[in-house]
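User: What would this chain look like folded?
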Amino acid sequence: MTNAPTPAPAAAKQESGGSLGFYGVWLLAAAALVVLPLVFSSGGSLTSFSLIGIAIIFALSYNILLGQTGLLSFGHAVQYGLGGFLAVHAMNAVASHNWPIPLPVIPLVGGIGGMAFAVVVGWVMTKRAGTVFAMISLGIGELVASSSLILRSVFGGESGITTDRTSLMPLFGWTFGPQLQVYYLIAFWVLVSAIAMYALTRTPLGRICNAVRDNPERVEFIGYDPHVVRYLAYMFAGFFAGIAGGLAAINFEIANSAYLGATQSGLVLFSAFIGGTAYFFGPILGAILVTYLQLGLTSVTSVWQLYFGIIFIGIVMFAPGGIAGILMKHRPLIRAGTLGTVIPSYLVAAVPTLAFALGIILTIETVARFSGGDPINLLGIPFVATAPTTWVAAAVLLVGGFMVARITWKRVAEAWDRAATVARDRGYLA
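Assistant: Here's the prediction, encoded as structure tokens.
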């Protein structure tokens, strides 16, 4: 005789294990944020970590639109910038009136500013999705960015508006003058914002946002208004983008028109897409990578934006799921124990692929520096842009690396098919 209630304890145990895993991830993230500046304590590292934290909040807010609701925005920097400007004005007002408001509260002011703008313009913008929304967002973004240079009393013109974060009341003895204290402030808001945005994806609103993204007609059929859902998503995205802008204003102690420009909107789009919009941690990975690339490339080459474009095109063509999508494809192989089948092919393909990438870099830098004759340093090897040997080396790396890489990529595909077949037979891959 079978016992019907038997599966209940197992299900409860599985649910309990899932809850422990959920809280464990966030506790681990919190511990990493605390320990990170203790391991990398230099001023440059703290500055980089602060910028990465701001970029993470900004990218996650953008993913509420693109990844969750399917709204492609070309003007998300508007909420980011307005949040930054409002935060600067708030800090100056608090300092001048000696109000007992500590600095950690200021990002909320920026969030309110971003949401307020979304409330005003969002109802009209979110009536339609797709190309219509994208073009309207681009137009509004450019309108606000150009207005920031005209309305000097509000935006300060080209020079922007400055502030002093140390002029506010200390909190537990912290004046937030040292960069370390600013980092921990940003880290706190990164953790709070990330948890809040993740929780939003698990709410009925988050689920309906996914449904509106996939099939708005069916959502309307079951009784929900896709327009209202998109409007609510736009407001939440504006709120968290404003928080990111407020943190940027605190970090730099200035807000200017660059906060509102198309470059800022393009970078957050790039971060979200390259990381992967289908997974929550995708924009986090994208924000980290893009920030490090931006910090590293701007000091090395003048054509860093070209590299961003090449990476973006490569992701769109060969990995539309982003970095997160690539990583998650290996999950069934890990569970099935077949990942070791593809690792040797990865290692073999890495050498010619690296040569091909170096060929692209050397070709771009040779063309970019040919007229000026600036020297090129590639992996510690000096090259002269005007020298024929440089062009020969670039051609060999580019053509030879590509031809050999194509062969190794086929080997990778074959190894992947074998590993996926075994994983499918074992029930780990559909």
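The domain at 29-319 is CATH 1.10.3470 (ABC transporter involved in vitamin B12 uptake, BtuC). If you want, I can go into more detail on any region.
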